[in-house]
């Protein structure tokens, strides 16, 4: 009997998973994660779990923990095509922490999850850099995360990101629909751009229908299409917390998927409406162009995109001027968008946009 030479055994690396690349990615991201900390964080990255000293909550009479999780959707496809990965993390943080702050919660910490077809250490570190920078802007800590290599499921240059955050609010400071009153004033806070919603529609209009390239100069934007589409999400958490401390805020609404009216309706009681006046602001160019280039009807635009409003505050009527002053002081463009009246729990956009 002739012996058959043994074939080399299968390995994890041969299957497409590079553990050494993952370790190098962790080393590269450590500097950025260290910047996104708080005094309550114990230890550093590399452990099996992030640690947060909960004794900090003893100053609360009745602390309520709030939690949120989200991703950034198909905006990651733009980052991948442009090979620019250091801002998508800020989008992730914005999507998570600004959901937390809607109820009045202070974001405490976040964790992230990155799935990729192939770990390229520099690319993963760039994504985490953006997440860390977003956490600094939000006043929360990045206490850990996970990078998973999924060869065969994702292409080598593909990745997706998700995150989860935890915050805390004093029970008697909880904001929401039960505080909203007839006669309250609705204040809009400007978005920095598309934020992280509606990119399937936007990509279909500009890239598939119109055939535009991401490096196309668009005069209405004053920059390239890709630069406009990758504009990071504005993070409002510290602005909202300061506003709630200094004025009488009854509710916030984070304008994400579903648009302005649908998201505002989520914080209205069943017996009240929000009447919103389109004439109080001019549409930023990116929203107008999506409609014009794609022949997208206004109702479709308004239920898909934020239309230039990223966060809404519902405040007592006599607090409106003070609220606008606080936001101006913090560098957040804001204006009176409308008011609260008797109704059936709906937010209604009326009139035509300015300009």
What do you see in this structure?
The chain is α+β, with helices and mostly antiparallel strands. It contains 11 helices and 14 strands. The strands form 4 sheets. A 6-stranded mixed β-sheet has the order 10-12-7-13-11-14. Strands 3-6-4-5 form a 4-stranded mixed β-sheet, covered by helices on one side. It has a two-stranded antiparallel ribbon with strand order 1-2. Strand 8 and strand 9 (223-224) form a beta hairpin. The termini are far apart. The model has no long low-confidence stretch (mean pLDDT 91).
For this entry, give a set of tags.
alpha+beta, four-stranded mixed β-sheet, 25% strand, globular, 33% helix, six-stranded mixed β-sheet, ATP-binding, 14 strands, nucleotide-binding, single chain, 355 residues
- Element order: H for helix, E for strand: HEEEHHEHEEEHEEHHEHEHHEHEE
Number of helices: 11
Q: What is the first-to-last residue Cα distance?
A: 89 Å
Q: What Rg, in angstroms, do the CA atoms define? A: 23 Å
Pfam families: AIRS (PF00586), AIRS_C (PF02769)
InterPro entries: PurM-like_C_dom, PurM-like_C_sf, PurM-like_N, PurM-like_N_sf, PurM_cligase
Pathway: Purine metabolism; IMP biosynthesis via de novo pathway; 5-amino-1-(5-phospho-D-ribosyl)imidazole from N(2)-formyl-N(1)-(5-phospho-D-ribosyl)glycinamide: step 2/2
Protein name: Phosphoribosylformylglycinamidine cyclo-ligase
Write the layout of secondary structure elements.
Blueprint: H1 19-35, E1 41-42, E2 51-52, E3 63-71, H2 75-82, H3 88-100, E4 106-116, H4 121-138, E5 141-149, E6 159-170, E7 185-190, H5 199-209, E8 217-218, E9 223-224, H6 225-229, H7 237-246, E10 249-254, H8 259-265, E11 272-277, H9 285-294, H10 298-304, E12 309-315, H11 320-329, E13 334-342, E14 347-350
Parallel strand pairs: 4-5, 11-14
Antiparallel strand pairs: 1-2, 3-6, 4-6, 7-12, 7-13, 8-9, 10-12, 11-13
Helix pairs in contact: 1-4, 3-4, 7-11, 8-10
């Amino acid at each position: 009997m002739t012996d058959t030479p043994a074939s080399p055994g299968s390995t994890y690396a041969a299957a497409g998973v590079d553990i050494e690349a993952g370790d190098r990615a962790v080393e590269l991201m450590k500097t950025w994660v260290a910047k996104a900390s708080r005094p309550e964080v114990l230890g550093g990255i590399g452990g099996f779990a992030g640690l947060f000293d909960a004794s900090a909550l003893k100053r609360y009479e009745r602390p309520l923990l709030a939690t949120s999780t989200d991703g950034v959707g198909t905006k990651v496809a733009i980052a991948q095509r442009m090979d620019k990965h250091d801002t998508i993390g800020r989008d992730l943080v914005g999507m998570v922490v600004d959901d937390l702050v809607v109820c009045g919660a202070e974001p405490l910490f976040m964790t992230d999850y990155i799935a990729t077809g192939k770990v390229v250490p520099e690319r993963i570190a760039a994504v985490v850099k953006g997440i860390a920078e977003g956490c600094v802007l939000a006043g929360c800590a990045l206490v850990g995360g996970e990078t998973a290599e999924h060869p065969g499921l994702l292409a080598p240059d593909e990745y997706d990101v998700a995150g989860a955050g935890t915050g805390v609010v004093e029970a008697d400071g909880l904001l929401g629909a039960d505080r909203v009153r007839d006669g309250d004033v609705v204040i809009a806070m400007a978005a920095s751009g598309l934020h992280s919603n509606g990119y399937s529609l936007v990509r279909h209009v500009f890239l598939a229908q119109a055939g535009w390239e991401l490096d196309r100069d668009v005069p209405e934007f004053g920059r390239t299409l890709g630069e406009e589409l990758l504009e990071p999400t504005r993070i409002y958490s510290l602005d909202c917390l300061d506003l709630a401390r200094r004025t009488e805020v009854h509710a916030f609404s984070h304008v994400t998927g579903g648009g302005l009216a649908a998201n505002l309706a989520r914080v209205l009681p069943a017996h009240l409406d929000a009447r919103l006046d389109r004439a109080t602001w001019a549409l930023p160019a990116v929203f107008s162009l999506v409609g014009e280039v794609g022949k997208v009807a206004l109702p479709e635009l308004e239920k898909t995109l934020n239309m230039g409003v990223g966060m809404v505050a519902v405040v007592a009527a006599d607090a409106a001027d003070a609220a606008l002053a606080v936001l101006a002081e913090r560098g957040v463009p804001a204006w009176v968008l409308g008011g609260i009246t008797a109704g059936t729990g709906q937010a209604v956009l009326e009139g035509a946009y300015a300009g």
